[in-house]
Amino acid sequence: xxxxxxxAPAVAGMVVCMAAPGATAQDKPMGFxxxxx
Amino acid sequence: MGKGADLGxxxxxxxxCAKLATAAGSTGRTWRAYxxxxxxxxxxxxxxxxxxxxxxxxxRGELIAVDLDQLHINPNxxxxxxxxxxxxxxxxRESKPNEHDILTGTQADGTAYFPWQKxxxxxxxxxxxGEGSATVGHHDRHGGGNTSxxxxxxxxGCSQENLQxxxxxxxxxxxxx
Lengths: 37, 177
Description:
The complex is a heterodimer of chains A (about 35) and B (about 180).
Chain A: E1 32-36
Chain B: H1 9-23, E1 31-33, E2 38-39, E3 42-43, E4 56-57, E5 63-65, H2 68-73, E6 101-103, H3 123-126, E7 135-138, E8 153-154, H4 160-165, E9 168-176
Parallel strand pairs in B: 6-9
Antiparallel strand pairs in B: 1-9, 2-3, 4-5, 6-7, 7-8
């Protein structure tokens, strides 16, 4: 899932927040799962 | 494993978590099974004390909880998000067989039972595949009038057959510290 959030051109003094190009949900390291014992 | 609630104790369950996580590509993390224990005359080890401080994400990068408080008050643990290490769903109440009972041996706040709370709640500290009982949660948050993910009811026994008879299969949660 690409996070291309900010499309509008920035103006002076405006802070633009956007995700890093190519950032995906998979960038979050797995820290939880369910398994069979 | 396939031996009911005999997980080889906490160490065996932890090793199982680590093995599966590594095979799924996880590196550099310490894995712990979300399980409590019981001891004679004092409280055992609490599951919540074993799993670090968060945040925790599932295999698809979805946030489960930011910290221990959220995990035990309002976690994002549901059928859609409580996935296995490869991002696959685990069978819930609408599936046949239903496998939504997840072994925890834990009270709802994530702590071990008090010594005055009589009865086996941990299948003899995760070494029994016969006599005993264990507290289970429901990863799909349905069934039995209790939506708890970690403390819904106690199992009928500790054998694989008994776990299956109440909607389980000997599953448990793994968390990275």
